[in-house]
Every structure is written in C-alpha cells, then in structure tokens.
Specification:
The protein is of the alpha/beta class and 509 residues long. The protein has 20 helices and 10 strands. Strands 4, 5, 8, 9 and 10 form a 5-stranded mixed β-sheet that branches. α17 (378-387) links the parallel β8 (365-372) and β9 (398-400).
Length: 509
C-alpha cells in the first residue's frame, strides 16, 4: 500500500510540474531564471582561463581509450570521495585495471548525494555521452559500453573543445617547459563547432619552483633544467633573473597572456637585491635556509615577476590559502596533487595588500585575479581587489576571482557572487574557470551559469531587481564569456600572440 501511494503521489506531482532531476531547467527555480539562462547564458562560448589540461593531449588530438582514462585518472575530487567511502588506493591512483576503477567509482556515486560530484557526474554523462540514467553498480556496465562507443566514434581532445564551443583554454606551465605542444597547437588547431572563431590554447607561466629554496631536493634539479632550457649559466642572482626573464619572453612569444602562482599566502616583505642574492647563494650551494630567508627571497622574486607581467601586459593570477599535501604518508605515495589537501587558515590580508601596494607604487601592478581557498576570506579578498582598481586603466582590472577548489560548488559559488556583488561590481566579473585536469569538466561552466541565472532570477521575482531582460541579459552574457575574452585580450583577433596593449598596466592613481 505504501509503495502504491508513493507512486501515485509522484505521478500526480509530475503532472503539475514537479522538477525532474537534470532536466533542461535544472537549478533554475523561477521563470525569470529559466528565461535568462536559455535566452542569454546557455549559448555563450567557454573561456577557461585557468586549467591544468594537457597541451600535449590537445596537440596530438588524443583519443581516450575508455571512461576511466578520460574521467578518473587525474580527478582528485573523485579520489577524495572514493577514499571517504573506504575504496582502496589501488582503485583510486593505483595499478588496478581500468574497469575495476570505474566500478569502484560507480559504487561511490550514490553516496555523493548533496556533494557537487553527484551533479557534475551526471551532467558530464549527459553532455558528453547522451546518458540520462543514474550511475550506480546496476547501471555501470551499460554506461561503460555506451561511453566506449562514443569515445570510439571520435570524441577526441580537440573534438571536445569544439563540442563545447571553447574559445580559450589556458594551460599551466613551468618556466622550463619548451612549449613545443603549444607551437603545434597554434599551427594546426581548427575552428570550433560554429566554424567562426578559433579555439585558442595558450600557456600560463607558473614559476612556483623558483621560490622553493627551502626544498633543495626540488629546487636544485629544477634549477639545472632552467640552465639547460635558457642556455644561461646560472651562478648567482643576476643570472637567475636573466634566465627567468628569457623564459618569460619565450612564453610571451608563444602567446602567453598570464602568469599564475599557487601560494599558501602572499610574500610581501621588503627585500633588497643584496639580501636576496645572499639567500640564493646559500640555496645554490646546498645550504639550509631559514623561514626568514624564504620570506625575503620569495618576496623579492614575486615583485620581479610582477614587473615582468606588467611590462608585457599579462594577467597575474594568485591562488592563495590552500594547505597542500597534509599527509606525509600520502605525499610519499601516491604523491602531490592527489587529493590530500585542505582549506588553510593562514592570515592573508596584510601581506596581499602590501604586495599589491608595493607594485602599484612602482606603477608596475598588472591586471590580477585573486583566488581565495578559505570562505572566511571572501569579503576580505573582494574588498582588497576594489581598493587597487585604477579608473584610467578600465574597469575590473583587479578581479576577485571565481569560487575555487573546495568552494566551486553551489553554496560556494553563491557566496562568491554575493560577496562580489555586495562590495564590488558583479557586472564587471570575468566569470567561471574550471581549474581542472580533466577534459570532462567543461559542464562546470553550465553549472555556474545556471546558478548565476537562478540567483538573479530569484531577486527579480522578489522585486529586488528590475524585470528587464536587456539590462540583465547583457550583463549575464558578459559574465559568461565576453568580459573574460576582453580581459585576456581576445575580444578580437587583431592582437597577435604576445602583442601588448597600452591599456594592460595599472598605473598608480
């Protein structure tokens, strides 16, 4: 009787418009939200300005052998959930057969309810493979076979970019990278699915290892690679700076438009060149360095990198506040970037503001995106960004970046949008980026856009915003792609790779 009653109730509810999971109006709770999303956000091209995608895979137009390779091999979000369900490490990052790993993920998925992975998983299955059913142990076999058919049918790395109307992908690259894959991409990449605009795949200069003088086992081998690739005999600080500048120039010649730094917190101690040189000499000779040494040297280099970016008109991205590789045992095996990280609770505001101020005093503050990992810092970062805007350089030059890492889920996205709206200008926001290692992550842009339109739609229907599709629609289109294209100098193809614009440097007010 109970089952029959529930079935009848559900049938009755569906007849009066009960929402259906992952239908065309997923996450859109009002008529206005639906109108804004389908009329303005849905068709915007994707601008993914910070990713960890493989340029080599794009250059080779890599074809994925199965669902595990494309979906599970590099996704530490999924590995974290699997570990929480007691799945052995061999089925996450280990050497288990691909199908066994997939079955382990299928067992995990039903337990991810209310975790964003549940939404992302089923969005990805639907958008990439046309699969509308739920993934669980009972459906795993048929879903594996259907996905295999689609992958064999030609869903390659480049086809994915075209399928999702991607206009820009920025990869993350060490200064010692040769960028040969980027050169190959630039020579061969075809137009996107609409046939009108090219897919641009550009490198991002990420010199994190240049700061790691407190880790000689990492720093010294990296320094040797820098010597080789720059063809400069690095024997002191001036020659180190020459080598880094040469690599910065090389990236610029290959179309790079941004740098990126993944830091626990910003370094902003005033340090002269002589002091930084002494610290570098200690590290070069293999001597141990103190925390104060690291603070001085890293502060000097961060200002140096800021000047380089400003000279070329690049965007600097600062990812701050994550506590990485917390487990020593996990760092040893399976290694870094495998999902053993957390939100950090370091103090961020004073150092970040000081860093921006030091650059602005020199008239060397580049455009910059500030990402925070700790939700307690949302309003802090948003207000700091506004404090360093410069009106004659165009609006939105300093960006409070999108919800990042642990915060790029529904609640985190809404909080980031609310903080930005409350103390800054949502209308000048550059929108979402995936920060992903997976070619299966592009539906996260759709996820963000639906949440954005739902937030605006609810406020319209409460009378808090005007019911004006022209006013709202234009701004939603900007946030979903147009502003980011302009911000990275790609609003037209008139700027050749590496060409700078006179309006790219934030001058002191």
């Amino acid at each position: 009787m109970a089952k029959a009653f529930l079935h009848a109730r559900r049938k009755a509810e569906s007849m009066v418009g009960m929402p259906v999971f992952l239908d065309e109006d997923f996450l859109l709770s009002t008529a206005t939200a639906r109108r804004l999303y389908h009329g303005h956000a849905e068709s915007q091209p994707i601008v993914d300005y910070h990713t960890h995608l493989s340029a080599a895979a794009i250059a080779a137009d890599h074809r994925f052998r199965d669902l595990t390779e494309i979906w599970l091999e590099d996704d530490h979000y999924k590995w974290r959930a699997m570990r929480a369900c007691g799945i052995p490490e061999r089925l996450c990052t280990g050497d288990a057969p691909a199908y066994e790993k997939f079955l382990a993920w299928a067992r995990t998925v039903p337990d991810t309810l209310r975790n964003p992975l549940y939404h992302w998983t089923h969005l990805e299955l639907k958008r990439y493979f046309g699969i509308s059913g739920l993934l669980n142990p009972g459906t795993a076999s048929s879903i594996w076979e259907r996905a295999h058919e689609v992958l064999e049918g030609g869903l390659s790395a480049r086809e994915i970019l075209r399928k999702f109307c991607v206009r820009l992908v920025c990869t993350t690259d060490d200064p010692v990278d040769e960028l040969s894959s980027h050169l190959a991409i630039a020579q061969t990449m075809s137009a996107n699915a609409h046939g009108s605009e090219p897919v641009r795949v550009l490198p991002t200069f990420r010199p994190d290892k240049a700061l790691r003088i407190d880790e000689p086992e990492t720093f010294l081998p990296w320094l040797e690679k820098l010597r080789e690739v720059s063809n400069i005999d690095i024997r002191d600080l001036p020659t180190l700076l020459d080598a880094l500048r040469k690599r910065h120039d090389h990236f610029n010649e290959h179309g790079c438009r941004s740098s990126d730094h993944g830091l626990t917190r910003c370094y902003a101690k005033i340090c002269d060149e002589g002091t930084a040189a002494k610290v570098f000499n200690k590290a070069l000779s293999g001597q141990s360095t103190t925390p104060d040494d690291l603070e001085s040297y890293a502060s000097f280099l961060m200002l140096f990198f800021g000047r380089l970016d400003a000279e070329k008109g690049w965007v600097k991205q600062l990812h701050l506040g994550a506590s990485r590789n917390l487990s020593t045992r996990a760092f040893e095996k399976p290694g870094p970037d495998t999902g053993f990280d957390a939100i950090g609770d370091q103090s961020q505001g004073a150092a970040l503001a000081n860093y921006l101020d030091l650059l602005q005093r020199e008239a060397a503050l580049p455009r910059m995106i500030l990402y925070n990992a700790n939700p307690a810092d949302s309003y802090l970062f948003a207000t700091i960004a506004v404090s360093f805007q410069a009106s004659h350089n165009g609006s939105g030059a300093l960006q409070y970046g999108p919800a990042w890492w642990f915060l790029d889920q529904k609640d985190g996205i809404i909080e980031q949008l609310s903080a930005l709206s409350s103390v800054g200008l949502l209308s000048r926001f550059i929108g979402m980026t995936t920060d992903s290692r997976s070619f299966m992550s592009f539906p996260r842009h759709e996820y963000f856009r639906r949440i954005l339109c739902d937030l605006i739609g609810e406020e319209v229907e409460r009378g808090e915003l005007p019911d004006d599709d022209k006013l709202l629609g234009e701004r939603i289109e900007d946030i979903c792609g147009r502003t980011a294209l302009s911000y990275f100098g790609l609003s037209s193809d008139s700027l050749a790779p590496g060409q700078t614009s006179k309006n790219r440097v934030i001058r002191s007010v």
